[in-house]
Design a protein that fits this description.
Blueprint lengths: L2 H19 L1 H103 L1 E2 L3 E7 L2 E13 L2 E9 L2 E2 L1 H17 L5 E7 L1 E2 L1 H10 L2 E4 L4
């Protein structure tokens, strides 16, 4: 046995003797051991708190990013709503302009008809007439006639009644026919010649017009 081992053995023997015989020494050692355990527990608790704080920080960061995204989304929605409102205003303005343009085109078409139709009627139907706009009362209802004229075919009087439409389809012919049914009451006993004048005539309109005895005249016809 070496001198160091001998010293270590003697020290252990003395410590064991003190632990058996000295109560105060035993409590002191137990206290020291308990303090170390407490320190170890405190360190573990501190580490856990640090991890919890880090996790909370990460959660707050994610929450902040989410809030930022929601704010950006709300802003984008607000901009979209503003754009939709601007679009609605633009569409409304466009509709008004289209309405004005329709009125202008309608008026222009009527002027064209006043020049073109009398010559066409004379060449194809032997009708001499000058056309104008006219308002007729039928059963207390005021009906507007785009093109009206008191004409003559050879020696016979004939009332010419026409309607201007830039595009003539089956529906437009039916509407004009309904108007004519009312006008017949105002012109009872008088021969009528009815026609429609427009830039475009759809095949469906031609079929409907033939059945109702309405002549269709396109602006390009001579």
């Amino acid at each position: 046995m070496t001198a160091v081992e001998d010293v270590s053995t003697k020290l252990k023997t003395q410590l064991l003797k003190l632990l058996r015989e000295d109560e105060e020494f035993r409590y002191t050692v137990a206290g020291l051991i308990g303090l170390e355990d407490l320190r170890s527990s405190m360190k573990s608790l501190t580490d856990a708190i640090d991890r919890l704080a880090e996790a909370q920080k990460l959660t707050e960061d994610r929450l902040n990013r989410l809030v930022e995204r929601i704010d950006r989304l709300a802003e984008a929605q607000k901009l979209t709503e503003e754009h939709v409102k601007q679009l609605e205003v633009a569409v409304s303005s466009l509709a008004k302009e289209v309405g004005r343009l329709s009125n202008v085109v309608g008026f222009g078409l009527e002027d064209v008809a006043k020049v073109v139709v009398p010559g066409w009627l004379y060449r194809h139907e032997r009708i001499e007439v000058e056309l104008e706009r006219k308002f007729v009362y039928v059963d207390d209802e005021l009906i507007e006639v785009n093109l009206y004229g008191d004409g003559r075919r050879d020696s016979e009087a004939v009332i010419v009644v026409g309607e201007c439409k830039s595009r003539i389809y089956e529906g437009e012919v039916r509407e004009f026919a309904e108007k004519l049914e009312k006008l017949v009451k105002a012109f009872q006993g008088k021969r009528m010649y009815t026609f429609m004048f427009g830039f475009l005539i759809h095949p469906s309109a031609e079929r409907e017009a033939r059945e109702r005895g309405i002549t269709l005249i396109a602006s390009y016809m001579r």
